[in-house]
Amino acid sequence: MKNQIRVRFAPSPTGPLHMGGVRTALYNYLFALKMKGQFILRIEDTDQSRYIEGAEEYILNSLDWCGLKFHEGPHLKGEYGPYRQSERKELYKLYVDKLIASGKAYYAFDSEQELDEMRVNLKKAGVQSPQYNHISRQTMKNSLTLPVEEVDKKLSNNEPHVIRIKMPRNQTIKFQDKIRGWVSFNTNHLDDKVLYKSDGMPTYHLANVVDDHLMKISHVIRGEEWLPSAPLHVFLYQSFGWEKQMPQFAHLPLILNPEGDGKLSKRDGDRLGFPIFPILWKNKKTNVNIEGYKEKGFLPEAFINMLVFLGWNPGNAQEIFSMDELIKEFTLERVGKSGSRYSYQKTKWFNQQHLRLKSNQEIRDKTTFSKDFKKSEEYILKVIELVKERCTFFEDVIKESNYLFTAPDDYNSVAVEKKWNKETVSHLISLKSKFISSKDFTKNNIEVIFKDYLELSQVGFGQVMPGLRISITGKMQGPSMFSVMELLGLHEVISRIDKAIETLGNG
Ligand code: GLU
Fold this sequence. Notes:
By secondary structure, the protein is mainly alpha-helical. 44% of the residues lie in helices and 10% in strands. The strands form six sheets. Strands 3-4-7 form a three-stranded antiparallel sheet. A two-stranded parallel sheet has the order 1-2. It binds glutamic acid.
């Protein structure tokens, strides 16, 4: 039997996809693949005034970079298309007419000015947030208050009008959310939302519910900001008589800013210096380009790994996951209710961890070393092996490995200040002769020579190693010096020790 699990990612093309949107797509994707179901892209473009050119393409490119592939969508074939709401316009009219016919919705002819007046009057009467609802609609110009003939006349004259849901008085709307448990709302707090606009387009609510139904969506997994809309959606399913096929809802927790005191926004990224978009966004109107995680050097797998933890946990201590592992492990039951705080530090840590998992050859292919470094491929791969654990981004490989190609020109002044002195120089001179007389300049043997020397001279590691490291690398920190020396070779090691002594003097 065909699997019935069908989920959708339903962005509106109103601008670049924020990382919160990518997380929603990711959770839908993981859930679909785990359940062997379908992952669908639906473009919700009914609000033409907010349409931004290039946004749909951006959404596709971003998710492609993240490795999230759809089974159905406007760019693919599928039995349930079209997958762009602007191409399904006629459909919504049919459905809204059904609601009118069953008395669940009504025509409203109020002008902007009349709506404003209503709000002002209600405010004056002490109503804090005035709404078009079961009380106020009684005084407005709609098919519930006007005589039938007048309504018919207005409709046949094509007078501007909208269609509103008729929210009943004092009823409880309840549904079970897979993340929040039972959620209930009293209809007294809900307004008569517009379902169909005067421009002949449905609003988000109508189009969203009709499409979820027609596309046989089994689970609606979306951000918490849509929770207040859910009772209206449930009421629409009931009004259409579709409650038996109603999808299950899962409202994802917020992603909080690094300070943890509000929803993560683009402003936080600008203020604290981290990207908010997955890939480069080129604003065609303003010509402003905004770099994303990709351009900052992040690996898509690290970005995904970071994102999945903003709301989900595996229930054990494992932190590094591949997409395949996530597909196996992901469950909605392990998504929490409370918001998760974003951290740029942690994001970089994920990148570092995933970079380490790359083969030396993969890193080689992504790194451009200077042509002046005349070294064999074999040597370059060994360099990568040595430094990769110290790198967060591909570009760090170059920074971290410079001294493995050319002798240092300058020496870290803090290191020299602290660690370079007469004793250092005398140790280096003694060590040098031990190295020269060694038959086998491999890391294990170098280590033996070094440790024997420490024992013989009755000195500690910290009295000799920093000086040796400074003389050879110019730095205070780096990978194992025994490996570094083996790679550089005896001749180079000796010449660097000599050069350092010459340059830095006797301390
Ligand atoms: N079009 C809505 C959005 O932009 C979709 C919300 C939903 O998933 O129902 O996020």
